Amino acid sequence: MSEQLDDDGEMLFRQIHPACLVEGVPGSDRFMPSLADGGFLSVDRASKTTPEESHALYTRTGKLSAAVFGLTVGEFSGEAIPCRDAPTKESETHPENPAHALADYSGHESKRHKNIAKRLKRLALVHGQLFPPPATGDGASN
Prior knowledge:
about 20% strand, globular
């Protein structure tokens, strides 16, 4: 059985697909599980990886990610979404990921996920894009 995360301040990283990032803002649907996810949202733990390493591992198998955003365990808890450690073993389609965790939406009806995701997106925007560093737009190359 996996360990429930209880450090409310721990950041959890979420990969954002390029098609879901418009002018540096992720779609709120990136903060809720898809139908295929069975009520669980995949994230990576800051206590075990960095945003850059999380991105590199995710994209290593050809998956696309334009940015990494984050939410804390406490922010998920504020929406009654417990998070648990869920490291993955290497398979043909996925690399080993000891930092993998799951945000468990199963306590909510799926029709509530969209409103929860909108609130979580607002919180993620407060933290800002964690990787890659957002473009400054000033044309500077340094």
